[in-house]
Amino acid sequence: MAAESISRPTGAKVIALALQQLGVKVIFGLVGIPVVQIAEEAIGLGIRFIAFRNEQACSYAATAYGYLTGRPGVCLVVGGPGVLHAMAGIGNSSINAWPMLLLAGSCETHLVTKGGFQELDAISLLTPHVKLATRPCLDSLPQSITNAYRSAWYGRPGTGFVDLPADVIQGRPDENVPETRIVAAAPRAGVDPERLADVAELLRSAKAPLIVFGKGAAYAQAEHTIRKLIDNTGIPFLPTPMGKGVLPDSHPLNTSSARSAALKNADVVLVLGARLNWILHFGDEPKWAADVKLIQVDISAEEIGKNNGDAEHGIVGDINVVVPQITAALEGFQYDHASPYMQALQASKAKNEANAAKTVQIVKSPMGYHQVFDVIKRTLNKLSPPEDGNVVYISEGANTMDISRSAFPLEHPRLRMDAGTHATMGVGLGYAIAAHAAYNNPEAEAQSGPSASARKKVVCLEGDSAFGFSMPEVETMARYNMDILIFVVNNGGIYHGDSEEEDQWLKLQENTQQGQKGGLRSTSLGWEVGYEKMAEMCGGKGYLVRTGEELQRATEEGFNSKTPVVVNVIIESGSSKKLEFAWQKSGAKK
Ligand code: ADP
Ligand code: MG
């Protein structure tokens, strides 16, 4: 080979340089031949590479990193099976509208259709599911990566996909490759004056106005603009599960504990960065008033008028531009708090909060969900007050997620991630790693709370089933010294587990093995599985707890630990008679 060609960088180096020039600080990935060369070049340039145990978890992590930082999270995987596993992350990115740049290897161009190593026509497979799918040649690497990055980020976020054949990764471009064009934040649109006047009039004349905000508002980092609108006008608000924290839960206008009454009785609702899907009961009866007027503000035009939205009042624009316009148009307006709507909300709040206080006082053995979350909450709040915003909660599992949602107060945005729009179980550990990287990097890219540079403790609240989906990532956490605190709320199964006693469980298991009727149910998992050992086996700490005192001690020690910690919390199981299925309770499927 001529000396001149050796001095030229490889495709792998060009790719790593392009990522560096785009400002990428972290890559979530799982390597193999040939993408390992890209990872090594990136590490050589000072980009952090977090190596996972399964592409599914690392693709979830990249999407969560995109959500927390407001820029595409980057994921690097091998071709073929790596791409198939990472499709979970592509789905997650598009359904949650979180930006991800996915880079995957593929077989040598000249071997395509011959059955090459890990050959897969990823472009055809992924094109319907991503915003851009591209296979660059050696000389077009920087512009292809830039375009995929920009497409993932601009408009409603999603995935930009770059397929990287082995000969492109290993080859050397003929010419000097062009510099990567820096991608600036997307231009932002506002509302036209006529629509603004119309919407302002609707809000001024409303008898029961409400502002609902979702994870789009959190992603847009719109906490300051929304706060000003609410403080100026006195209109009550309701966050969606991941909109929680955009305004402090302790804010007097928060109607979360009167959610049903707030939705049912509102006559004009300003919806900021939240879709009218199942999470908001489609904006429809019976959860909403039949004649409610819904003013949707969304970056995506296709969203306006969907389900029960009113297209004639909808606004296509960026929350950070539109909300200050609305605030200015409502100058001088103050919603009258003596209204029957506000009184109904206060009454409903008082009643629901009193009921909730009673529920957490129930102490039993084995413990129940409410008691568990109350102990964890009280212990954590003492160690790190919610005002400081230095705890990030990740939560998944049916009852674990449902019940914990209201148990932990949040005073700052982007400090809570859950199973999201797809109700995806298995995202938790990847999200936790992403949150740790986003908030605790020396060059932390995500910010929340008053002290931007403070370290944040990542706390996972996992059902035993949800934890199982990505259990090996505890080793990833340990390898990178991530001091993540994981609670496995263990009732021995999906939803409610199977039996109340070990003897009974063993009997059912025996029936199963003998092929008899009355064996273990489909919701059953192992009896008191030692999940805490997942941490112990890789240098972390594990705790098995059964009582409130044990849980409190484990929470304190876990919070202060410098390694990952798994606290296996044995709770009542087989309580199907006492605990309903989550979907039965929500009335979602009838
Ligand atoms: P939630 O699950 O909290 O209800 P969704 O994910 O359903 O929230 O909705 C988020 C919405 O926010 C999406 O429709 C997305 O297009 C929108 N969105 C994202 N960023 C912005 C922004 N900067 N301005 C306006 N809307 C946004
Ligand atoms: Mg369970």
TrEMBL record:
Record has Methyltransferase as a keyword: no
Domain Thiamine pyrophosphate enzyme central: 197-325
Limits of the Thiamine pyrophosphate enzyme N-terminal TPP-binding domain: 10-124
CDD domains hit by this protein: TPP_BZL_OCoD_HPCL, TPP_PYR_POX_like
Protein origin, superkingdom: Eukaryota
GO molecular function: 2-hydroxyacyl-CoA lyase activity; magnesium ion binding; thiamine pyrophosphate binding
Entry's localization field: Peroxisome matrix
GO cellular component: peroxisomal matrix
Domain Thiamine pyrophosphate enzyme TPP-binding: 397-569
Essential cofactor(s): Mg(2+); thiamine diphosphate
Keywords attached to this entry: Lyase, Magnesium, Metal-binding, Peroxisome, Thiamine pyrophosphate
One Pfam match: TPP_enzyme_C
One annotated GO biological process: fatty acid alpha-oxidation
EC number: 4.1.2.63
Matching InterPro entries: DHS-like_NAD/FAD-binding_dom (IPR029035), HACL1-like (IPR045025), THDP-binding (IPR029061), Thiamin_PyroP_enz_cen_dom (IPR012000), Thiamin_PyroP_enz_TPP-bd_dom (IPR012001), TPP_enzyme_TPP-bd (IPR011766)
Reactions listed under catalytic activity: an (R)-2-hydroxy-long-chain-fatty acyl-CoA = a long-chain fatty aldehyde + formyl-CoA; a 2-hydroxy-3-methyl fatty acyl-CoA = a 2-methyl-branched fatty aldehyde + formyl-CoA
Known role: Catalyzes a carbon-carbon cleavage reaction; cleaves a 2-hydroxy-3-methylacyl-CoA into formyl-CoA and a 2-methyl-branched fatty aldehyde.
PANTHER family in the cross-refs: 2-HYDROXYACYL-COA LYASE (PTHR43710), 2-HYDROXYACYL-COA LYASE 1 (PTHR43710:SF2)
Family named by the database record: Belongs to the TPP enzyme family.
Protein known as: 2-hydroxyacyl-CoA lyase
